[in-house]
Amino acid sequence: MKQYIALALATVAVLAAAGTVLAAEKAVVSPASEMKWMDNPAVPGAKLAVLWGDPKTGGYGAVKKIPAGTALGLHTHAHDQRSVTLSGTIEFNFEGEPKKDLSSGSYVFIPGGAPHEATCKAGAECVYFEESAFAADFKPATKK
Q: How many separate helices (H) and strands (E) can be counted in the chain?
């Protein structure tokens, strides 16, 4: 139940932060047990469940899972992304800044082109909600 509440709050917070207004044609209810998980092509072992849109072609909202201990080295995204950690702890930093632990309920706004790193800390997989108005991408970067 706690995850459902966190997911609902994360969705509301992200949409409010983005200033996005959605006009749904019909109501949507997505219990976690019915989400359709698929492999995340950008990260071996990672999964994603698309809530709306299509991350391959345009704006989307998705729940993502990363195995414990997985490091996403320095990388960028072409467009802004917003994310809220739902479970696990993600060690995150923008290039040149100190690392911060993002536990359940933590929020991060990643401007397009901003180099950053993220690691799902050992002990438990990391689950987070991610939203963007544009297609998803993952571009490895080199340190300056």
A: 1, 11
Q: In what order do the strands lie in the sheet with 60-66?
A: 38-39, 47-53, 60-66, 126-132, 81-87, 107-110
Burial of 92 (0-12, 13-18, 19+ CB in 10 A): buried
Domain with 6 in it:
2-140
Q: Are 120 and 68 in contact (CB under 8 A)?
A: yes
User: Per-residue pLDDT tens for 66-90?
Assistant: 999 999 999 999 999 999 999 999 9
Q: What is the CATH number for 84?
A: 2.60.120.10
What integer best gives the mean pLDDT of the chain? 88
